[in-house]
Specification:
- Keywords: Hydrolase.
- InterPro entries: HAD-like_sf, HAD-like_SPP, HAD-SF_hydro_IA, HAD_sf, PGP-like_dom2.
- GO terms for molecular function: sugar-phosphatase activity.
- This is HAD hydrolase, family IA, variant 3.
- The protein folds into two domains: 140 residues, Rossmann fold; 58 residues.
- 42% of the residues lie in helices and 12% in strands.
- The chain is built from nine helices and six strands.
- Helix 9 links the parallel strand 5 and strand 6.
- It is globular, with a radius of gyration of 17 Å.
- It starts with a strand and ends in a 13-residue tail after the last strand.
């Protein structure tokens, strides 16, 4: 029986994933011009993990990237994915617990709250990168998300868009719903139990059986 729903943030709750792809694409083209596509491989990683993986020992470059990312996030749009608000309200009317499980840090979330002041009302818990020791595709974040809501992983729905995120949700034992906001339907379908383009294509009745 489904008792909870766990949501990734960027590309699932908020229509921000393409904006981050542009930002990281610019950074990698600057510092790794001979390694195209790195911006797609980092999906699901925390900022600290991205910097450690690709800019280890390069403190000056890390500081530049952090500064530019902070400025970029100040100007970003934080609109909801179509249908999300209606869908999450319906879930809560069915007494389904809800949580965000994101690789974003608290500093980024403060920017989100300034633009979407009511977002916290949609969730019982919001877990950020500070809450996990391992990033997606490791299931740690989703296992901790389920534990935070007091439910078992198999009692959870997991909503994801990235390859690493979908792998994490599946590894954790969630019923996974993949959104095509970041990857093609063909890619997403291989990694989840159900595929949707956005939340206008689904209702709680489709899942709470």
């Amino acid at each position: 029986m489904i008792k909870a729903a766990l949501f990734d943030l960027d590309g699932v709750v908020l229509d921000t994933e393409t904006q981050y792809t542009k930002f990281w694409g610019k950074q990698f083209r600057r510092y790794y011009p001979d390694s195209p596509g790195l911006e797609h491989k980092i999906k699901g990683m925390t900022l600290t993990q991205i910097l450690d993986a690709h800019y280890a020992g390069k403190k000056d470059i890390q500081e530049v990237i952090i500064h530019e990312l902070n400025e970029y996030e100040q100007q970003m749009s934080y609109e909801y994915i179509p249908g999300f608000e209606a869908f999450v309200k319906q879930l809560r009317q069915h007494h389904i617990k809800t949580a965000v499980v994101t690789s974003s840090n608290l500093a980024k979330m403060e920017k989100v709250y300034r633009r979407q002041s009511g977002m916290k009302l949609y969730f019982d818990r919001i877990l950020t990168s500070e809450d996990f020791s391992k990033s997606k595709p490791h299931p740690d974040s989703y296992l901790k998300g389920a534990a935070a809501l007091g439910v078992r992983p198999e009692e959870c729905l997991g909503f994801e868009d990235s390859i690493n995120g979908l792998k994490a949700a599946r590894a954790a034992g969630l019923f996974s719903v993949g959104l095509t906001t970041t990857n093609s339907r063909e890619v997403v379908a291989e990694l989840c139990d159900m595929v949707i383009d956005d939340f206008t294509q689904i209702s709680p009745a489709d899942l709470l059986v």
